[in-house]
Design goal:
This protein has six helices and twelve strands. The structure holds fe (ii) ion (2 copies). One fe (ii) ion binds next to loops.
């Protein structure tokens, strides 16, 4: 199974480049399953139900998110209105699994594509971020429930050390641990010794003429003046950042991980 994972889709420019480039990437890399982080899909802040549907219509199978998941209140209603169907669209939009028990939404999805069983786990780091539950122990718990051999983990975190530690912790137990949230791709993709594909950050899919997606003048003013300011999505130098992970369906082990950046 070949999995394409697209890094944080940022605003309209991010959605537009996914629409334009995804069909070609799927063909070129013989992609079977598409996962994308959509936490910044709504002008940089959160995701709305219509944008969820827009991304699913482009062929994305599962959407992961992170700390921005709660920015648009409608997504909470969307989670709460989900019917009992474990494969409904609302079940295929994940919030980090290590929020407190009882938080709306789900942090893990298990399903199948072309008769191959797979699972996706969304986790959020705790270093320089809000104090969620322990992502390491939450991963242990989820892996006890999951039956699929192929397990893909999005670790949405700030600190390289925390992401890398989770990669080593899960090496041989999941197919891939990929980082999101910093919006800057890292050049450290590799398959760890026991068969887990790893990268510290996939990078953002959105405008790079910016500060992590936001209008650079607005962010600069914030650093210079330290006053509340309105943040808007930038628009220039749009790039799509992603990885392709090739997994052995019988064992769940990754064979290769390839980093992509397309303009
Ligand atoms: Fe993000
Ligand atoms: Fe984030």
């Amino acid at each position: 199974m070949r999995i394409l994972f697209i890094g944080d889709i940022f605003g309209r420019p991010g959605r537009a480049i996914v629409r334009d480039r995804l069909p070609g990437l799927v063909k070129q890399h013989s992609v079977d399953l598409i996962i994308a982080n959509g936490e910044n899909a709504a002008a940089g802040f959160g995701i709305t139900p219509p944008l969820v549907e827009e991304l699913f219509e482009l062929g994305i199978d599962v959407i992961t998110t992170g700390n921005h998941i709660w920015d648009k209140r409608e997504i909470i209603d969307y989670f709460e209105a989900a019917d009992g169907n474990p494969h409904s669209p609302a079940r295929r939009v994940l919030r980090p699994a290590n929020y407190a028990p009882g938080t709306p939404g789900w942090g893990m999805y298990e399903g199948s594509k072309n008769d191959v069983h797979y699972a996706v786990i969304d986790l959020q780091g705790r270093v320089f971020m809000a104090s969620n539950d322990d992502p390491f122990r939450v991963a242990d718990q989820l892996l006890k429930e999951i039956k699929a051999k192929i397990v893909f983990v999005d670790i949405h975190a700030e600190a390289t050390s925390e992401k890398m530690s989770l990669g080593w912790y899960l090496d041989g137990r999941v197919s891939a641990v990929v980082g999101t949230h910093t919006h800057v791709p890292t050049a450290d993709e590799r398959v760890l010794p026991n068969g887990t594909a790893y990268i510290t950050d996939v990078g953002m899919t959105g405008p790079y003429d910016s500060v992590i997606g936001v209008n650079k003048e607005q962010i600069l003013a914030r650093f210079l003046n330290n006053m509340p300011a309105r943040f808007e999505a930038a628009s220039g130098d749009v790039r799509l950042c992603a990885v392709v992970v090739d997994c052995d369906e019988a064992t769940g082990r990754a064979r290769t991980i390839e980093r992509l950046m397309v303009k």
